[in-house]
Amino acid sequence: MTSSSALPPAFPPESWIKVLPQGLYVEPGNFFVDPVRPAERAVITHGHADHARPGNIKVLATPDTLAIMRARYGDGAGSSLQPLPYGERLRIGEVDVRFVPAGHVLGSAQAVLEYRGCRIVVSGDYKRRSDPTCAPFEPVPCDVFVTEATFGLPVFRHPPDGREIARLLHSVELFPERSHVVGAYALGKCQRVIALIRRAGYDKPIFLHGAHIPLCNLYRELGVDLGELVPATGLKKDAFVGGIVMAPPSAVADRWARRLPDPVICMASGWMTVRQRARQRGVELPLVISDHADWDELCQTIEDVGAPELWVTHGREEALVHHATGRGIRARALALVGFDEEGQGELPDVEHPPTHDANPGTKPGLGQGALL
Ligand SMILES: [Zn+2]
Ligand SMILES: [Zn+2]
Known about the structure:
Layout: E1 17-20, E2 23-26, E3 31-33, E4 41-43, E5 58-61, H1 63-73, E6 80-83, E7 89-92, E8 95-101, E9 109-115, E10 118-122, E11 144-149, H2 161-174, E12 179-183, H3 189-199, E13 206-208, H4 213-221, E14 229-231, E15 244-247, H5 249-252, H6 255-258, E16 263-268, H7 275-280, E17 285-287, H8 295-305, E18 309-315, H9 317-326, E19 330-333, H10 355-358
Parallel strand pairs: 3-4, 4-5, 5-6, 10-11, 11-18, 12-15, 12-16, 13-14, 13-15, 16-17, 18-19
Antiparallel strand pairs: 1-2, 2-3, 7-8, 8-9, 9-10
Bound molecules: zinc ion (2 copies).
């Protein structure tokens, strides 16, 4: 490892890890991390659709991420799937690879890559808060830290999730004749919200939109306790009175939700900080619950890993680059494509939607939607 000076290292990391159109390419190991197009060899940080794509030949990921990929893609998950549990080391070509928990969703990992004494950590997506459904993020000291920046602006400060869940449960109490439908992405967010509701002491059955059933079942198979879950399909309207229904974000404001009794439309997302977004989506009760680091968590993590060099990707890179540079860290935005530039419809389960959707034409600012 190099010392923490801002001088370029003698052996520059960009000489062996490169940004190609297909994604982040690790040359001495001949593999990609989270390739956006099918690769011969892929190291996958977690199961979200913008990181784990189908069609790779050889896939290396944590056992839980592989289970998620298999559940979603079947045989398309890859021709050969190799599990690597957290903490175990594997040499690929000339590169040592290990996974360390990222605290983002079940199975999510930071890829720790070492080559000739230089350590690069590709964090994928991460958060620092406790999440009952996955192992907590572990900071790893490194020479280069590759960070996401989904909420990379100082205006994004997520409140404690316990407070958001208390708001939901308070509303359930307040309106016993209504139903509450909570929009949440299918992988990670849905299960985390359920687990947080359980942690707050709510023990009635929770209803599930059909789209949420497979991954909730998988989470339980993998040992995550979610309490009693009931498929919402085929039930009479009355069954939902006073109840909580989990649904994909796309379903909460559409016809599907109208068959529920006077539904309170809720949405669990870091983007609910932006009130205009909540209004646009017809959300009555926005819940700011994110699986991504907020601004403070991003800055704290940069401190914790102590890397003299920072590469910033998908999200609002500029503010974080500026912040890091001010702290004597060499920082740059990675021009990775495929994470924030595809339609949200194609990536139904991710929280970092296209920038143009979040914020039309005003990257990197927050735009007119910000009311904070
Ligand atoms: Zn993700
Ligand atoms: Zn992502």
